[in-house]
Amino acid sequence: MVSPNIAIGTKGERKTFVCEHNVAPHVDKFSTPSMIRLMEQASSDSVQKYLEDDQVTVG
């Protein structure tokens, strides 16, 4: 169930460093899975204050 308290346009931010743990080895660039993980973490962080204690986000 979506919380009615989450405002449309809510924004989140996460920062990371590109290093050997999050690059695609064959091109030595920030990998797509790492980018998706970072976006999901930012999204989750941005709505935590709107969630009840028994609620979680899934990405």
Would you write up a description of this structure?
The chain is of the alpha+beta class and 59 residues long. It is 27% helix and 7% strand. It has one helix and two strands. It has one helix at residues 32-47; strands spanning 23-24, 29-30. The chain has a two-stranded antiparallel sheet. The model has no long low-confidence stretch (mean pLDDT 88).
Key attributes of the depicted protein:
59 residues; two-stranded antiparallel ribbon; 2 strands
Please write the string of helix (H) and strand (E) elements.
EEH
Low-confidence stretches: none
What is the gyration radius calculated from CA atoms? Answer: 15 Å
What percentage of the residues does DSSP assign to strands (E)?
5-15%
- Which class do the helix and strand fractions yield? alpha+beta
Q: How many DSSP helices?
A: 1
Secondary structure layout plus pairing:
Blueprint: E1 23-24, E2 29-30, H1 32-47
Antiparallel strand pairs: 1-2
Short description:
This protein has 59 residues and is an alpha+beta fold. It is built from one helix and two strands, in the order ββα. Strands 1-2 form a two-stranded antiparallel ribbon.
